[in-house]
Automatic annotation (TrEMBL):
Entry-linked NCBIfam families: fmt
Gene field: fmt
Binding site for (6S)-5,6,7,8-tetrahydrofolate: 110-113
Keywords: Protein biosynthesis, Transferase
Protein name: Methionyl-tRNA formyltransferase
GO molecular function, one term: methionyl-tRNA formyltransferase activity
EC number: 2.1.2.9
Coiled coil: none
Positions of the Formyl transferase N-terminal domain: 1-180
Amino acid sequence: MRVVFAGTPEPAVPSLRRLLASDDHEVVGVLTRPDAAAGRGRGVTRSPIGVVADEAGIEVATPRRLTDPDARAALDRFAPDCCAVVAYGALVPPDLLDLPRHGWINLHFSLLPAWRGAAPVQAAIAAGDEFTGASTFRIEAGLDTGPVFGALTERVRPDDTSGVLLDRLADAGAQLLLSTLDGIDRGELVAVPQPADGVSLAPKIEVADARVEWGLPAHVLDRRIRSRTPEPGAWTELGDLRLKIGPVTVVDAARDGTDVPDLAPGAIAASKKDVYVGTATSPVRLGSVQPPGKKPIPAADWARGARLDADAVFA
């Protein structure tokens, strides 16, 4: 089957590599987002998917929008039987949905209809879901509403960050996507409409949404921070400094046998080895702190260098 692959970030790479290695499908072209500024130097860089396609000698198209004429021209040139989509980052306009005879097949990192939208992995962790997964479905005009071909389930571990969980789902989902295309090509798979019940939404998490709310219960705050690690990165303020906060540990004095201070929400207490911050319930132990323009460092090292006042409070 002639396949156009549409994807952009690193989590899409396992799927593209799996398709490139397939004997049954030919990747005839790649759609990815335009080269963009990245890193501290803000140099223009190719997307991870663009890099893999270049290495494989596959033609790459980088339209700003799929409504642009050059996007249609590229698809006409590629003449795909199917378009496989993984974290592409742009909506497919209605007039392109029926262009490939097998449509556009999306690998989405949730168990649909749960967590439709741009940030399903982050939403699952923040909500405290015990399980999540990945689904393949045919794209239609609605947001992640199309009929489902297949799914896989993955347990959410207590220490999962969104980055770690997404890596697992990306690897497992690559095989799911390949199996879906295999089944479609052989005429063995029929997409099943999503149920009307159980719908939840996972909109994109903006930087403002990643501010740490120290007034939340410790277990909720822990999930929130892990869900925003590494992107966009949980952050808080100390005076006029904005600091990124790595995952935290919910402290249980009875369980840990630790002399845990009693702290108001946001209040900081540092020892030689640990830094505690108050929440609405029990304190949490900081894992890492990233000052502006620097790399993350262990919280205790940061506290020693910061020379905190006795009444220091995160806001």
